[in-house]
Amino acid sequence: MTLMVNNSLLALLAQCETKTWLRWGQELVMTEKQEPGSMEVGQVLHVALDGWMRGCEDEVVLGHFDQAWAAMIGEQVPKQERLHQANVRLCLSHWLSQTLMRPGITVLQTERTFEVPLGTVSGEQVIYYGTPDACLEWHGELYVLDHKSTGDIDEFWGEQWTMNTGLQGYVWGLRQLGHKIKGAFVNGMEVKRLPPWDGNLEKKCQTHKVKYKECQELHVSGRWVGPLWWSESRLAQWKRDVLAQVERLVWLRDEGHDGVLENVMMDGQFRWPGCNGGRGFGPCPYRAFCQAGRPVQGLTQMMVHQDWRRE
């Protein structure tokens, strides 16, 4: 038997055992869908930015954005105003108008999935897989790239990527396949609610002292982070930690027989943003199920099957 694992699944497990058991272990989603959020909008932006990485003109990139939004989100409206289609598209347009590829970088390929044997856990072969947004050449060496959209790029934003498990997994996995990957870059794009709040572009911006129609694009930031490097010993520790998490996954998958979850934790209640969500994050979609005491009948009355998507 083969167990397929990627960073998204491991991150889900780190959030909450109950959420992982429901979504991955049982492939269940709530019947009452939530409005799209930052994850769905980020997926749309990834499609558009793939075109940007391949050298498409700005209008073509925006066309990819429109098509991806229609296919992935459709007529649904995100609750956060900054994530509304018109605002996100405008942020993307402004970002494209002022963002250049980092000097010296050559894009070699985009969106190519790899699969690598990770080891054996409880008699099952574990395959680790991932899809870097791009592979690059910079100063004669190879790097992976990940696009990240966020509501705010501040002075501390870049620090979070130095220990990012997804980037480490890309580097480790591609090295196992014989690619001499040196490290990683992150390409950040800010998606915020753009001023002016009343839509009057003739108003004067207090920050730039000109009309908003002249400076609105300056309210959108982008940032390259990197190059980021990890030693072989650091990546070896990453692998050990992943295998330990896979042991938890195997145990979790086999728990909850007949829907009895007394041994499965609700970790989200102890973590941020957790069950209730927080600034920029919506509540957990399974919150109502947990609030009701995780009833067995809720698995059929409150949820429907949806295949776990390898992404």
Descriptive account of the structure:
The chain has 10 helices and 10 strands. It is an alpha+beta fold and 311 residues long. A hairpin with a 2-residue loop joins strand 4 and strand 5 (124-130). Helix 1 crosses helix 2 (17-25), helix 3 runs antiparallel to helix 4 and helix 4 packs antiparallel against helix 5. The longest helix is centred in the C-terminal third of the chain and has 23 residues, at 232-254. The radius of gyration is 21 Å and the shape is globular. The two termini are 20 Å apart.
Distance between the termini: 20 Å
**Residue share in helix:** 25-40%
- Can you tell me the residue ranges where pLDDT is under 50 for at least 5 consecutive residues? none
Query: What's the oligomerization state?
Result: single chain
| Mean pLDDT, all residues | 91
**Structural class determined from secondary elements:** alpha+beta
Query: In order across it, which strands form the biggest sheet?
Result: 3-6-7-8-9
Principal-axes shape call: globular
What pattern of helices and strands is seen along the backbone?
Answer: EHHEHHHEEEEEHEHEHHHE
The share of residues in extended strands comes to 15-25%
CA radius of gyration: 21 Å
Number of strands: 10
Keywords:
single chain, 311 residues, alpha+beta, five-stranded mixed β-sheet, 10 helices, 36% helix, globular
Quick description:
This protein is α+β, with helices and mostly antiparallel strands and 311 residues long. Helix content is 36%, strand content 20%.
